[in-house]
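sry for the spam today, last one i promise. struct tokens for design, 142 residues
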């Protein structure tokens, strides 16, 4: 019985925390829209979506994540697009639509792989630009 009371208390605390997160994220979303900051609006939509998902509002969560994805696409922000796909995958998984969850996880993975290839190509270019005049550092010598 004591454990039941403890678990109920922890559940209540968690719900309170998610309600507070939802309220703060919705305030951030409103402010972002007021000042027409699309990047901040997208981040706020994802935060609202996470909080709604934790509170059991699955369809509302999916809607927030879809709206965030549309903003990411309009901004041509690949990193944000990947985050939105990942958030959608989680929301659809919790909403019990495994087919869409898997589809969005694959989209997220594809975007992440593309970004990693681009990052590695930039690093390779930087390394190729370093002149070979100096010998490599020997970590044994100090």
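last one done:
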């Amino acid at each position: 019985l004591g454990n039941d009371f403890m678990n109920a208390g922890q559940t209540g605390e968690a719900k309170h925390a998610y309600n507070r997160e939802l309220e703060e994220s919705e305030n951030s979303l409103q402010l972002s829209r007021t000042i027409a900051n699309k990047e901040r609006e997208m981040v706020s939509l994802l935060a609202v979506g996470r909080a709604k998902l934790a509170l059991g509002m699955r369809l509302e969560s999916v809607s927030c994540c879809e709206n965030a994805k549309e903003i990411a696409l309009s901004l041509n922000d690949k990193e944000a697009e990947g985050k939105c796909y990942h958030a959608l995958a989680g929301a659809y998984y919790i909403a019990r639509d495994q087919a869409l969850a898997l589809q969005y996880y694959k989209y997220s993975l594809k975007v992440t792989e593309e970004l990693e290839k681009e990052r590695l190509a930039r690093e390779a270019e930087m390394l190729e630009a370093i002149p070979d005049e100096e010998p490599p550092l020997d970590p044994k010598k100090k």
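DSSP finds five helices and no strands in the chain. ok im logging off now
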